[in-house]
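Input (structure):
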């Protein structure tokens, strides 16, 4: 079983390396090191589940294409830009946290729009980032953004719209805390599962 798993990992990484041939050597080496680290960590956490792990990592062509786009290149492009740096992983996470706090800071319409702008910007940054594999992006964003939004929609339809003032007064603070805690949980997940976590600790 271990030999079969090792073969699957080797073939997967070889495909990524082949598909990312247009990357500069240093960028390709960094990409391969990140992928190998993620696979090893996942295998340690879930031994014997290598097929699922590789499926969650994503299609090798998609990974290579994303890496090329990060450098401003496309497959077959002769001169990618090797000096472009990724945005730090903490930037969109800070926006998510700040946007969540701002959303519950008051009822002024400007605060609502500011919170919305922060969250949208953070979601776009996470979706375009190479700090996370797709499965981890969606898990983190589902907890940090989708669940709080759904909770607010249910709150509005079930309590605010009917005008239940007593319920609104009693549950306003617990509801705000629940929304913020969900965002904190999603942000913590994204921070813990970012691809450069080993370099941050070193």
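Output (sequence):
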């Amino acid at each position: 079983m271990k030999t079969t798993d090792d073969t699957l990992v080797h073939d997967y990484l070889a495909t990524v390396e082949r598909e990312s041939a247009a990357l500069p050597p240093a960028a390709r080496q960094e990409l391969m090191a990140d992928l190998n680290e993620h696979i090893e960590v996942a295998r340690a956490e879930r031994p014997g589940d290598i097929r699922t792990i590789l499926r969650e990592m994503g299609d090798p062509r998609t990974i290579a294409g994303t890496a090329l786009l990060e450098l401003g290149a496309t497959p077959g492009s002769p001169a990618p830009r090797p000096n472009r740096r990724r945005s730090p992983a903490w930037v969109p996470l800070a926006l998510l946290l700040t946007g969540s706090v701002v959303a519950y800071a008051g009822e002024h319409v400007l605060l609502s729009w500011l919170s919305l702008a922060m969250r949208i910007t953070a979601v776009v940054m996470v979706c375009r980032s190479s700090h996370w594999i797709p499965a981890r992006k969606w898990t983190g964003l589902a907890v940090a953004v989708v669940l709080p939004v759904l909770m607010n929609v249910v709150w509005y339809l079930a309590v605010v719209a009917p005008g239940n003032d007593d319920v609104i007064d009693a549950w306003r603070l617990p509801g705000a805390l629940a929304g913020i805690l969900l965002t904190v949980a999603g942000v913590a997940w994204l921070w813990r599962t970012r691809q450069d976590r080993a370099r941050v600790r070193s």
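Notes: The mean pLDDT is 80. The chain has two domains: 2-70, 90-201.
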